[in-house]
Design brief:
Radius of gyration: 21 Å
Helix content: 25-40%
Strand order of the largest sheet: 6-8-7-9-10-11-12-14-13
Distance between the termini: 14 Å
Order of helices and strands: HEHEHEHEEHHHHHEHHEEHEEEHEEEH
Structural class: alpha/beta
Oligomer: single chain
Number of strands: 14
Length: 378
């Protein structure tokens, strides 16, 4: 990596802190605290962690030192009145103190009471490392490393198989047994753990809530609620289908992917998940920083024709992406959906070196590393 200490959101956050509070959401251990602390003059100056008992007492008894140039509240969403707390500090001290709030749950979802913060903050979602963040000139080896160890900083930088196995097991366990209990009331934790162990086998195919409910012997509504909670904890994400009146598209079935694609054992599905994560990061960056309405969807019609992903900007397609393990044959579905859905550019990405076709016409077969450069992935 060219720079282990700087993340892709560094400049954006610095710019926004001059005007408002900045909230940073993202998965556990994705680097939120490290990123936030990079704005401090020392490691402890102005940093408060709700999970630390001493820091929690300072927060609960309102003994926070407001004179720090930057105040960081880590995992503060677990405190019922966190929104009132940061609003009060910001309104009174905003000329002298910058405020950063980080959390391993969706800060825009877990609103546990308090005054509205509308107009007082900018919200960013921090993603794992992706190819463009690793290096401007990535190699096939970089892609293989990402596929093997995932994009979370600790296992990616260590690149040790034993460490990765232990880290992944411990991280998932903490999310399910600790983070989930902090934000939701669920009695059947063992069934949620079983669900988390099953979901990686569903990556790359249409997600059947009914099938999962039968496997777990609970209602479809319960399964859907549990997956929504796991999404809010940044463990996984779902994407919906896309189509128009010229395509008889499936309308309800969703597809599911993980923030840590290394959880997925099947190699083809893992590569598809890695691509999905790169595209979601692209969407979130432009939505959080530029204010565009971005969506990641997939395309599939009732006859089974499919393209894995389509990126929408303000409800209009930007480009579509099909994932293939091989690089020889171009999918006929690219040209078919391009014309019917008026998609400006269509790609078929792979892990090899072949590059042929035209993305503006009937589709381009292109190495994924090259696609990332061409379409400005972050």
């Amino acid at each position: 990596m060219q720079n282990n200490t700087s993340r892709y959101l560094q400049t954006c956050i610095k710019e926004d802190l001059s005007e408002k509070m900045v909230f940073i959401g993202g998965p556990r251990q994705v680097g939120k605290t490290t990123l936030a602390k990079s704005f401090l003059k020392s490691d402890k100056n102005g940093y408060l962690n709700w999970d630390d008992l001493d820091d929690r007492q300072l927060i609960l008894t309102n003994r926070i030192n407001k004179e720090h140039p930057v105040l960081i509240f880590d995992e503060i969403h677990k405190f019922r009145n966190w929104r009132s707390l940061v609003k009060g500090i910001f309104d009174k001290y905003k000329e002298d103190t910058k405020i950063l709030v980080t959390g391993s749950a969706r800060l825009d979802h877990f609103r546990k009471g308090g005054d509205s913060l509308v107009g007082r903050y900018h919200y960013y979602r921090l993603h794992p490392f992706t190819l463009p963040e690793i290096s401007k000139q990535t190699t096939h080896s970089d892609l293989e490393t990402l596929l093997t160890f995932g994009g979370f900083p600790e296992p990616f930088l260590k690149q040790n198989q034993r460490h990765w196995s232990r880290w992944q097991k411990e991280r998932v366990s903490r999310v399910v047994t600790q983070d989930l209990r902090d934000v939701e009331t669920i009695k059947e934790i063992s069934l949620v753990e079983l669900l988390v162990s099953i979901l990686p086998t569903r990556v790359g195919s249409l997600l059947s809530i009914k099938s999962l409910s039968e496997d777990l012997n609970v209602s479809p509504h319960t399964v859907d609620r549990w997956i929504t909670i796991l999404e809010n904890l940044f463990l996984c994400f779902r994407i919906a289908p896309y189509g128009n009146e010229r395509v008889k598209a499936v309308k309800k079935s969703q597809k599911l992917y993980f923030w840590d694609w290394s959880q997925v054992e099947n190699q083809g599905a893992r590569f598809e998940n890695l691509v999905a994560s790169h595209l979601l990061k692209f969407c979130h960056y432009h939505e959080d920083y530029n204010g565009d309405r971005m969506e990641l969807r997939y395309i599939r019609d009732v006859e089974g024709r499919e393209i894995d992903f389509v990126v929408l900007k303000n409800k209009k397609p930007l480009f579509a992406v099909e994932c293939k393990t091989g690089d020889k044959n171009k999918s006929k579905h690219l040209e078919y959906f391009k014309s019917r859905l008026q998609i400006p550019k269509v790609y078929q990405v792979h892990q090899a070196t072949s590059d042929f076709g035209n993305e503006l016409k009937d589709g381009r077969v292109i190495p994924f590393r090259k696609f990332c450069q061409l379409e400005g992935m972050v």
